[in-house]
Amino acid sequence: MIQRQFYDPGRGAMTCSIEGLEKFDSPGKGRGLRVTRAFQTGELLFSCPAYSYVLSLKERGCYCEFCFTRKEGLARCGKCKKAFYCNANCQRGDWPMHKLECSAMTAFQENWCPSEMARLVARIIAKKKMQTERCASEKILPIGDMQSHVDDVDNERKDMYEGDIAGLHRFYSKHLELPDHKDLLTLFSQIACNGFTIEDDELSHTGTAIYPDVALINHSCLPSVIVTYNGTSAEVRAVQNMKPGDEVLISYIDLLYPTDDRNNRLRESYYFTCDCQECKSKSKDEAKLKVRKRIDPIEPEVISNMTRYARKTIRELRAFKNIKNILLISLNNTELLEMCEQSLEEMGAVFDDSNVYMLHMMYQAMGVCIHMQDANGAIRYGEKILKPYSQLYPPYSLNVSSMYLKLARLYMGIDRHSMGIRAFKKALAIMEVAHGKDHYYLTELRKEMAEK
Q1: Does 1.20.1270.10 match the CATH number of domain 55-199?
Q2: For residues 116 and 57, what is the distance between their CA atoms, to the nearest angstrom?
Q3: How far apart are CA 361 and CA 358, in angstroms?
Q4: What pLDDT score was predicted for residue 326?
Q5: Which example biological process does GO assign this protein (predicted)?
Q6: Contact 16, 3 (CB under 8 A)
Q7: 137 CA to centre of own chain
């Protein structure tokens, strides 16, 4: 029987053994986890609660702030009127954390605007204070064993951390004793490297959390496990058969992109370069960077220029969306769709429709169409994306299952029920491995299929 693991915030290590797993020194990677017995595809290696977590502001009213249950009819906090709960028990359970924000939101009203990371840091500090009151010998920071790379952070990110720290002092200093500036910088850097984004069944962002034990797992572009979420707990399941001695490996990044792009992202965010077998062989790069077939072959220089254009466009779009998320402003969807379509037209002169840069822009265009309630437009893009996704992503990828789910719900919305049921079944087959057959997402999905 698998035992639940617990994190000792004073020592930064697992304190309870997990049957079938052990911590070890991974060559060239530092610490890591490996299995001591065989695990089958879809089998749960372990589950663990979050050390600390926070619900995204845009999901307030849809999810319980305490247990992250998704349902209608949640009860509103009587004081701030902004936090929502399943019942009084969940509200009481969340009060030690919610009280940090409740009166501040009431006082600042629309001027209350800390970032999600600042909100999470405030909760970590508050939780640490509660623990140190019980055990005065613990460290100041609860995740002190995690790498921070604070000295490697570029100026742009340091400026962002400084803004977050200013937000902490502005919105939380009345109810929270904050560490000194250096410790805060370290803590923000640790969370940036080790935090986890909690996502729903369609991979929409619902919150951010810290799972120090899951953070022990190293990266590979050929992952052996996947991390999914059940409420606020993280669950780690095998996505391939594992034998004793195999290292437990997850992917830190989106695996759609070619080797150079993946490693650029790893260096920017995690300060290392991957040397897994896929990064050495680059076996999928040719398919991921496929160019359009023409009678006259396209010159290498033209391909290089278009690749630079695609990467630049993706960076600009990502930065624009990040600003939107931070400021909670609404996008002009028509303009954004025109931007996607213009990029697709330019790239399509060189790239095949299955090229990952084309797929990225199609995915963005699909999302805009969904926001605009243009089901037919969203389906048109989704159907182009689905086959390449299935070929380019690893087996049991949530990116593939979420695409099937999106399409299924779009089909149902325009009364294409047989197509919808087929897409639901495809999503279900992946999610049964990634989430486990008893996950409440699957219960909801089966109910949704039955109702149709």
Answers
A1: no
A2: 8
A3: 5
A4: 47
A5: methylation
A6: yes
A7: 34
Which amino acid, one-letter code, is at 154? D
Tens-place pLDDT, residues 82-139: 999 999 999 999 999 999 999 999 999 999 999 999 999 999 999 988 876 555 444 4
Q: What residue segments make up the domains of the chain, in order of their start?
A: 7-49+211-250, 55-199, 290-451
Burial 42-61 (b: 16+ CB within 10 A, else e): bbebbbbbbbbbbbbbebee
Burial class (CB in 10 A: 0-12, 13-18, 19+), 138: middle
pLDDT 10s digits, 378-395 = 999 999 999 999 999 999
Sign, Cα dihedral of 415, 416, 422, 427: negative
Query: What pLDDT sits at residue 98?
Result: 96
Look at the alpha carbons of 90, 91, 96, 98 in this order and tell me if their dihedral is positive or negative. Answer: positive
User: Mean pLDDT for the chain?
Assistant: 89
Picking from 397, 364, 429, the residue whose alpha carbon sits closest to that of residue 254 is 397
Question: What six digits make up the tokens of 448?
Answer: 């949704």
CATH code of the region 290-451: 1.25.40.10
Q: How much is the CA Rg of the chain, to the nearest whole Å? A: 23
pLDDT tier, 45 (very low <50, low <70, confident <90, very high otherwise): very high
Residue corresponding to tokens 């690749």: 307
Of the listed ranges 78-87, 102-111, 144-153, 154-163, the one predicted with least confidence: 144-153
Tokens of residue 144, six digits: 């002190």
Residue 365 buriedness (CB in 10 A; 0-12 / 13-18 / 19+):
buried
The structure tokens listed for 343 are 């990029």
Average pLDDT over residues 246-257: 97
Neighbours of 18 (CB within 10 A): 22
The CATH code of the domain at 7-49+211-250 is 2.170.270.10
Residue 175 confidence (pLDDT)? 86
CB-based contact 32:248 (threshold 8 Å): yes
